[in-house]
Amino acid sequence: MDKTISSLAGAVADIPDGASVMIGGFGGSGAPIELIHALIDQGARDLTVINNNAGNGHVGLAALIEQGRVRRLICSFPRSADPTVFNDFYKAGKIELEIVPQGTLAERIRAGGAGIPAFYTPTSYGTDLAEGKPVEEFEGRHYVRERWLKADYALVKAECADPHGNLTYRMAARNFNPVMAMAARRSIVQARRIVPLGGIDPEHVVTPGIFVDAVVEVTDPAQEEVLNREGAVYP
């Protein structure tokens, strides 16, 4: 039951070429920078990445793209503060993009974790994003059918974890992380603190350990915005 891993490299060692990987975060908030950088060092290629955006600067997800590791990106907001890397790759035809409205993205991931194959939403009806998707009418309003979204792996950033993988999050860093942990076949977590069993009040657990497969402690996690202000580049 002890899910702790001693190193970042060990946590991501088994991610193969061609895997689908959900990466938590909303911009830099809750982004597991150290796990992403460990994945770059590990060398997996041809990845499908599910994230809220397309990365910023030359660290984190942007660095993963810049190293040519991402074949396809599923996100809601590819144009963020400094999307130069993604823009260049997309214009050069080096990366595929699927845009999903933000609420729909969150619900597709939640549905994947909850075992709900499809749901209906009015979002995107009548737009290019709904092209080719089934549409139904309910009470005089049209709804687009969207499918669940699952992944082989999720990279998650938590505030506190115990050896069984029970997790808490820090404020807005919670964002996509809990639903991604549920929707992945294997969830890998970096936590600022790993406490002994019983060190987390059960009432405070957000992600139960049943959804977590590996936890590595990162006591001083990097913040994407700080790295970018410093002009950091990885690797």
Characterise this structure.
This protein has 235 residues and is α/β, with parallel strands linked by helices. Helix content is 24%, strand content 26%. The protein is built from 7 helices and 11 strands. The strands form 2 sheets. Strands 1, 2, 3, 4, 8, 9, 10 and 11 form an 8-stranded mixed sheet that branches. Strands 5-7-6 form a 3-stranded antiparallel sheet. Helix 3 links the parallel strand 2 and strand 3. Helix 2 packs parallel to helix 3 and helix 5 packs across helix 6. The longest helix is centred in the middle third of the chain and has 13 residues. The chain is globular. The relative contact order is 0.21. The model has no long low-confidence stretch (mean pLDDT 97).
- Approximate strand percentage: 25-35%
Task: Give the beta-strand count.
Answer: 11
* Class derived from helix and strand content: alpha/beta
- Low-confidence segments: none
The major β-sheet equals: 8 strands, mixed
Could you estimate the helical fraction of the residues in percent?
Answer: 10-25%
What form results from the Cα inertia axes?
A: globular
Mean pLDDT, all residues: 97
List keywords for this structure.
235 residues, alpha/beta, 7 helices, 26% strand
What would you say about this model in short?
With 235 residues, this protein is an alpha/beta fold. The protein has helices spanning 8-12, 33-42, 60-66, 84-91, 102-114, 177-183, 224-229, and strands at 20-23, 47-50, 70-75, 96-99, 118-121, 135-138, 141-147, 151-161, 167-168, 184-194, 214-217. It starts with 7 loop residues before the first helix and ends in a 6-residue tail after the last helix.
